[in-house]
Amino acid sequence: MMIADTVQLDRKKDYSNKTKSLIPTVMRNSHSKSKGKFGMTLRQLLDKVADTKSVGVKLDFNGINVFRRSIKVLQDMRAKLKFPLWLNAVTDNMVDKYIDEFLSLCTHNFPKATISIGMLHKGQRLKSGEGYSAKLVTQMKDTLIRNNVTQTVAFPVPFYIAANSVDTLPALKNVQGITDTVVLRDFIPPPGPPLPLRAVEQLPDSSPSRRRFWKQLAPHQHPKLGSSAQ
């Protein structure tokens, strides 16, 4: 089992010096009286998971500042992190140097953790119905190679975009120095007007278009095709 949540910075009072500081926190409390407040710090979450010894943790980071503070917590608790750890960077609002910093901190401090990283960098957008171009895939490969990434890497790719990228995404399976990559599919449709490709998402598994995507891109992840798919 994997626990997943977005890490954010919350101002919490430090009773030792009566000041407030930014603390990496997770798990929003949904109760009405404390709506918008965070119910647990990152350190508390990791402590609980370490005690259970039966789950892993996936942490999402929307910016480099929250990751810088979080990596200090992770470093302090290194001895207790015996469970699967997944570090995900939402890169839509991150420039190249911050993406490089994220990858460098991951590889130097947690070489056995799974790294998850977005395809788009700050300022990059896809048009409606557009897939990931060969240029974007090359950008991803160059970023990983430049930062000497050799551990498992996952690429969170929305299905409605992946279905239009079957000719380019398979190249991510061949990145120098990396032996294990996973393309994750996201079936949550995008906001706004329906896209033409959303029809592909709604097709049954038996449809040729959907089977073509799984066979070319990620047959080992398909619930029915399995590893025997050619």
UniProtKB/TrEMBL annotation:
A single GO cellular-component term on record: extracellular space
Limits of the Menorin-like domain: 4-174
Positions of transmembrane segments: none
Region (Disordered): 195-230
Family (UniProt): Belongs to the menorin family.
Protein name (Swiss-Prot/TrEMBL): Menorin-like domain-containing protein
Organism: Timema shepardi (Walking stick)
